[in-house]
Amino acid sequence: MMPDAHRLLWAKSDRGRDDRRWLPVLAHLLDVGACAWELLGLEPEKTLELYARDLGFATDAAGLEATRRWVCALVALHDLGKASPAFQQQWPEWPAKAQAASLGLSWPTDGTGPCPNPVVPHGVITQVTLPQLMRKHGWHRRAAKGIADAIGAHHGFRASPADQSAAERPKEQGGAAWEQVRAELYGAVCSALEVNGPPDITRFDGGAYMRLAGLTSFADWVGSSFDLGRYEPQHLEDPRAYFGRACKQAQEKLKQIGWEQRTPLASRVQTFAEVFAYLSEGRPFRPRPLQQAAEELLRGVSDPALLLVEAPMGEGKTEVAWYAHLTLQTTLKHRGLYIALPTQATGNAMFTRTAEFLERAGGGRSLDLQLLHGGKDLNQDFQALRVRPNTDAPEEQAANVRAREWFTVRKRALLSEYGVGTVDQALLGVLPVAHQFIRLWGLGNRTVVLDEVHAYDVYTGQLIEQLVRWLHALGSSVVLMSATLPRERRAALLHAYGAQDAPWADYPRLTCVTGGQVQARHVPADPARDRTLSLHGLGERIEDLAERVRTLHAQGGITAVIVNTVQRAQDLRQRLAQAGLPASEVLLFHARYRNKDRRDRERWVLELLGKHGARPERLVLIGTQVLEQSLDYDADVMVTDLAPLDLILQRAGRLHRHDRDPSARAGHARPALHIAGLHPETLPDLQGTAWGHVYQPWTLLRAWAILRQRSTLALPRDLDDLVQAAYQDADPADLPPAARTALEDARLRKVTQDAGGETAALFASIVAPDRFPGEVKLPMWDDDARPDDDPQAEQDGLPRTRLGDESVTVIPLFRHGDRLLLDPQPQADVAPLFRQDFESAPSVFPLVAALHERSVRLGRREVVKGICSHVQHHLPAKPALHWTEIAALRDARPLVFTERQGRWTAQLPNLGVEHDPELGLVFTRPQGGTA
């Protein structure tokens, strides 16, 4: 049948525009196989070796050649299911329909029988029909089923049992004539790729599945962009010749999207001093002890490895991660690097640094670097690297590090050779979302860096462990970085990468896992960095806190105050003003400012207190957790609320952070840490302060129990011992009975909460590689439609990368008469709200940027619940906000403020919100007072 049928069944069409332009199934199969062929040709040899292992071939030249041919043949067969009634009926005007019917390729219509169901996806029909064909050609049953599952999922979704049952019905896949044409298509693909007997494998494991599924989708995306007008019927008379022509077309397409040869940045393994010579400004670069030890540890690595770096801030952990990538890429032929961080802010900072590193290390080679998080389009450094299609600007041609447009689409971003972003983007690879295997394929045979791995709760921590398991299965190396980890958490991460045990070493330490073997090495810290902090307790009442801060301020110097809630920070700021502290000597910084205002305050912190800051004679810096994350500032004395012990230590890292003459620190030559809620005999009030809602009470009470009798902290010497003690169950022996009871009650609640987090992560994630495919967890949503850490996801029952309270992004707007303005000033720009506002603008980007700069994320339940009614009240009988059609604003909602007696306020059900230029957004109760 083939000489006629292969020209008749359609796979792609230009229907609705030109019914004469369409592509036969065989042509599309070979197009996509050709794309896979060219993709593998641009991959490092290690990638092909991984596929060879999947298919049971040797890794010599002959084995790799056979691997490449078989992998591409399997990828090509992805749309075999289009040779079915369920698919072919979807184009009623199909020109060759009558000819196909004359060959028996038809289906019941006109009421003569049940029609096939067009809802049954063709990928599912591939999945249920291909295994039988493969078994007839000698494939093992389990291997055939796994392969068909992988390539059948190329549109992003694994088939459910119900889908498979529907696709098995004859009316969907057709009878004997359809079986025959599928068999002939299978044979034509094998002929074009010159493959014969099947590989001798009996199963297809998790890593193999993700590698094949990811490559299939990627190749299909590229192959589906081929010009339909290039095809002529005579082209398929010789499938092998057609495949050769398709390979040339694939080369052009890959060149257009910027997919280039994946080669190491360095031609040989370099020393740390060689790589980072540019940092020393002409002097010889002297690696820190941690960096030197990492170089030695990586020198003998011959298999993918996990490197766990536990060291205090300032020891050069980021440079260790970059160096590990360079070394492992050179020795193991890894294909790229992704650096994952906890927040967009830390991701932005790392993106800028990584771009500079790649520019230095790339040796003039053209590299693609993507920023991966929901706010990337508004990052100026990323926009500066972005290359639009068909752009020939000289400055873009001259740049070595660029961000090509094709990879900026969310699902494609991890395919790029280099990337920096949030951990959420990587974690989507282990959640049942559409095309999760594309993300894992992009992370496969790569160096993946996970920074600040101590910063996550139990739920996200479990997802990270699952990600590490999959990275191990995919042949990737992993670098984990942390100030320090509890022993149990450390062991779990090492075991996830295949470690047989988890040997201990003194802190600071490096741990390397490769081939199941583990090396742990203590790296002595630089004694010049040792500091002894004096500890001072005080009550948790806001009055106690204000009095202590006022006293320290009077002594001069820089006083940093880190509290656990925004309301407490705002209250403290007001009390200090009432006590007479000049406004110029107090700076407030928290997360409840509009983005532009928050960025201004962050800039002020760095200009005043950064490494080269102006450092006023006296200043009180008040902030929340934003002051413990990533900001490089230096305080002379610090006051902090009681917090989990590892976070207290992280906060204390800003005390005397920079090398300064002690005499220049006013009355604070010796670093001192004052902790609110730390009284030796009195338990802190976790309810009245709301601290117990911010952190698990057990972690707070453990910190209190460990620190209550201490008068000093030696850092970093005490850091590891303190963190290990903080997460042990055994209580200190000298605890009062009431404290011991409170700790035990809190511990039991923590056990329950942690078990809930572990269970939630287990149900949310795909199964581990050694259990895959296991139960089919269907993709429930298209991740293109959701930002990272989507606050709506949990409400919708969708998988999330993080658990937590509900939140919503609002954009404060200010009413002046009948106008809504972006700022309180009467001359401010009018807020763009509806489609006509954007269509009339010369460029959309400035409008989107202006709105995003004024947005703020609010986690208050009354805001989340009441924002919809608020919008309906202030924008009645209006068309839908155009924001919902713009990715960067999709989940933003307007919060409308009205001026009353010189104050800008907005009203929600049961909650008022005031916009104060100094305090930020302040929540108030209808009856008065802050909320």
From TrEMBL:
Chain ranges of the HD Cas3-type domain: 18-222
Alphabetical list of Pfam families matching this protein: Cas3-like_C_2, Cas3_C, Cas3_HD
Comp. bias (Acidic residues): 781-793
Enzyme class (EC, first level): hydrolase
GO biological process: defense response to virus
CDD domains (UniProt xref): Cas3''_I, DEXHc_cas3
InterPro entries hit by this protein: Cas3-like_dom (IPR054712), Cas3_C (IPR041372), CRISPR-assoc_Cas3_HD (IPR006483), CRISPR-assoc_Cas3_HD_sf (IPR038257), DEAD_box_RNA_helicase (IPR050079), Helicase_Cas3_CRISPR-ass_core (IPR006474), P-loop_NTPase (IPR027417)
GO molecular function: ATP binding; endonuclease activity; hydrolase activity; metal ion binding; RNA helicase activity
Keywords for the protein's UniProt record, in alphabetical order: Antiviral defense, ATP-binding, Endonuclease, Helicase, Hydrolase, Metal-binding, Nuclease, Nucleotide-binding
EC number: 3.1.-.-, 3.6.4.-
Region entry Disordered, spans: 778-802
GO cellular component term, pick one: cytosol
Annotated family: In the central section; belongs to the CRISPR-associated helicase Cas3 family. In the N-terminal section; belongs to the CRISPR-associated nuclease Cas3-HD family.
Protein name: CRISPR-associated endonuclease/helicase Cas3
Upper taxonomic lineage: Bacteria, Thermotogati, Deinococcota, Deinococci, Deinococcales
